[in-house]
Design the sequence.
């Protein structure tokens, strides 16, 4: 199969993992009712659900310029000075999986916020049913605007009592790329965790620098978690990024799960690999603790 050059490497990995049968998957109606995006493919009936016990959760509006950006947050109840962790979503918008990850981080003691930085197009990405309809929206997002939206998210968290001196970011798929980009942008970032974020951008994208090109500019330690069976992000590319960071004396670690495909942490999709996902989540927690984001 030839790779469509209009597709970014994260999307190639996404589209080539499909469940063999519908057994163990929700009906489309149930998936939508549960808050998942249909374009992400069939939703596993056993998707992880994290409750809100002990948490304050909700929707927020974050001022970005003259506009309001929607976000979802979760933080420990009664804790005013929780460390701040931004959750950078995949291309599927602010749907249930990203909200659940946000709650998981809240349970770890963080003030976690997932901003909906694709909001300007006026399209609710969670209601889009085909990946091909999502791509023009997410691929048109300028990096400068993305980084500015994330800075606004941090400022909002600080205004709500979050401890922005203990700032982290975690991201999945396209959000994994966002982690690398933000680590090169923000000097006060303590640590980042990138799940299968593409190291290289396609040639025809309007983005100035890929994570690989930004290696000399990294300002925070990043943990990269990748799948050895990812059809869109070759292990050789991950190794190149690792080498570039080492040559520039940047702090980064990588863990590659040999059998795991792209999206192995996405417990709502057929790409989910329980062992890799659980280990990667432990690695992410340890990374945030090591660099002073989580205590």
Sequence:
């Amino acid at each position: 199969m030839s790779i469509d050059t209009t597709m970014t490497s994260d999307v190639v990995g996404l589209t080539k993992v499909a469940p063999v049968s519908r057994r163990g998957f929700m009906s489309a109606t149930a998936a939508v009712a549960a808050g998942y995006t249909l374009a992400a493919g069939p939703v596993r009936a056993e998707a992880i659900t994290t409750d809100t016990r002990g948490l304050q959760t909700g929707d927020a509006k974050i001022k970005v310029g003259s506009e309001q950006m929607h976000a979802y947050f979760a933080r420990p109840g009664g804790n005013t000075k929780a460390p701040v962790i931004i959750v950078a979503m995949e291309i599927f918008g602010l749907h249930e999986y990203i909200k659940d990850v946000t709650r998981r981080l809240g349970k770890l003691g963080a003030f976690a916020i997932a901003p909906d930085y694709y909001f300007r197009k006026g399209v609710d990405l969670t209601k889009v049913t085909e990946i091909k309809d999502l791509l023009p929206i997410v691929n048109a997002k300028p990096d400068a605007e993305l980084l500015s939206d994330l800075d606004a998210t941090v400022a909002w968290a600080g205004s709500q009592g979050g401890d922005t001196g203990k700032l982290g970011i975690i991201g999945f798929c396209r959000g994994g790329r966002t982690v690398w980009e933000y680590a090169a942008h923000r000097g006060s970032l303590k640590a980042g965790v990138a799940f299968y974020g593409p190291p290289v951008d396609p040639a025809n994208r309007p983005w100035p620098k890929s994570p690989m090109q930004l290696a000399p500019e990294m300002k925070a330690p990043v943990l990269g978690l990748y799948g050895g069976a990812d059809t869109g992000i070759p292990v050789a590319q991950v190794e190149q990024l690792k080498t570039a960071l080492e040559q520039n004396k940047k702090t980064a670690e990588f863990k590659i799960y040999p059998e795991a495909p792209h999206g192995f942490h996405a417990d709502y999709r057929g790409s989910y690999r329980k062992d890799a996902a659980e280990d990667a989540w432990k690695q992410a927690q340890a990374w945030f603790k090591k660099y002073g984001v989580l205590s």
Q: What stands out?
A: The chain has eight helices and eight strands.
